[in-house]
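Internal ticket #5521
Category: modeling
Description: The requester needs a full-assembly model to guide mutagenesis choices. All entity lines are attached below as received. Residue total reported by intake: 685.
Assigned to: D.W.
Attached entities:
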Amino acid sequence: MATDMRQKQNTNPVVAFLHSVGFTPLGAVLLIIVALLPLVPPFNQEHMIRWLIMGAFLAAQAAAFDFTAGYIQVVNFGFAAILGLGAYTSGILANTSPVLAVQPGINPWIGIFLGALLAGVVGLGLGWLTLRLQGIFAAVMAWFVGIALMGLVRNLTELTRGPLGMNPRSLLETTSNLPYYYIILAMMLVTYVLLRLVTRSNYGLAFKAIGQNFAAAKASGINPTRYRVLNFALSCLFAGWLGGFYAHYFGSLTPQTLMHTSKTVEVLALAYIGGRGSMWGGMVVAFPFVFGIEQLRSNLTQLPGLHLVIYGVLMIVVMIFYPDGVAGLVDWVKGLIRGSET
Amino acid sequence: MVEKSSFGSSLMETIRENLPAAIVIAGTLVLTIVIGVVAGPSQILNSIITGGMWALLAVGLALVFGVMNVPHFAHGESFMVGAYVAYFVFNPINQSLGESPNPVLGMLAPFLAILASGLAGLILGVILERLLFYPLRVRTKKGWVMNAFLLTVGISFILTNGTTLVLGPNFRGIPRYWDVPPLNIFGVTMAVDRVVAFFVALVSIAALWFFLRRTRTGRAIRAVSQDELGAQMMGINLNFIFPLTFALATAMAAISGASLLFMFQAYPTVGLKPLYFAWYVVMMAGLGNVVGAIVGGFIVAVLQTATQQFFGISWTDVVPTAVMIVVLLVVPQGIFGSKIRSA
């Protein structure tokens, strides 16, 4: 992959620019298609646009998740809870209704970033605590912290209304879904491009080195803990940011539907089926995935949970037999085409 | 292990060598006494009985981690399977008993259910190991712990959703196994089911202990946990040891699911809470440390009772995590020491 990019860099300024922000021409075309999709029937129906929003939301999460899982080989098992932390923070900060104990009334556009900041800080603390140890400690501890965060949300009923759920105010004063779609698409793009730029820098090299061989990276003068904590915190920051969007788009937050471990598993499976360490693999899979799931769910109402079983089987098969996932498949096909040209 | 010399000095030495463990055990004892004073002896008895169950679950987890290096996240689903099997074995027998009473069968039916669950656990364990962990091990050993962890996450996901698909999300429970008046222990009334569940846990742990210590196969399992390559060179067949270990662990979890059916009704995600506590125990005691897991089970049960008593039941998710943060800060390898072998 990397050598291909270098060979192509000088050929065309547009292509060169795309590469510098982490896109291949094919990826850029896909992005444009996804952006234009809600303008074309049958995708211009409101429920289809909602699915597209869900797709972009999951895609961005998969990229942020893979930034940690695929690079430093640490699974953030409290990812959904961290996302929920961002969502609740932003939702509470924006609150103006007397239903909750506090009414700060901060503009959601600002609150989203404050929520992200808090999520990032929690990620920093959690990472600092666990990432000195083997990766499994971080995974399990993130899980514990996630469960604790969920417990907090359930218990601090004055702030969150607990299991009843709270209704944060909307980001926009519109009932149309389309503007939200472009917001989440932009957020997805920012998440991906920024994280991609990080992985392209020396930091990215260090992340990869640590993920591949912890001891060797340490021996060559990298402080693995520092890099791992940085990576983890950054991923949490973006998770919190995306959570803020969720809060002010769906307008309903409950601990169970947002912060539960099964939500983390969904993102995890997406990132792995997409291909770990690629960051874009999970994004490519997210859109067809949401449509497939919704189709299955509406056509097989007598078989609840079938889509999740299929999902799990797919994930296990990929994990055992084809760890490169969809990204690996695409690269393989590319290799075939290139091979036949020469 | 410390040799038995003069009892007093060797005890002091053991304490000095395991200072964190000694402090935590002493703290737990103090906490137990406080609970006893504040809430009465029934809460102490409750903690002990719950502790037996967490120990049984955690032992399986520690065993799988110690021997196979698998951080087992589907352990709660083994618990769930055990609960379902026990329900589907016990309920028909119980119904037929309602039509034609038979006191002997009435006494034995719950044990039949628990045994059936254990058997189902053994079979499930072998299937999972051969079907999933074996191919993964053949493909690559690189990043094994993380890969195996994710694999178990996938197993958990499939088993919970598969159960929902086949059996639906309904709760299937029983009010009690034995329809007899509660026992009176030291002035505390205690349901027979709870007492039996505790003894089932004790017997299972003791049986496992005996197996690991006294039989040839058990020694082979311990050898693998100490040095996989060395054990292989001594002619130990990993393709026998790994399925066996996984089967034993799964059976342990299934047995606890079965014997707690009166407390935890069978439903697809019933395993989450037991899984959480089992993981909590092994993280606190030290990953892969089987002996630590047994003691840890009781420590965590006391901690749990104390949280409920002093903070309220809704804080049982929050307070233990705070305690765990302290544990990781002070003794990251766990209070009894970790047997972890690779990243």
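Resolution: model delivered.
Comment from assignee: Chain A has two domains: 1-32, 46-341.
Ticket closed.
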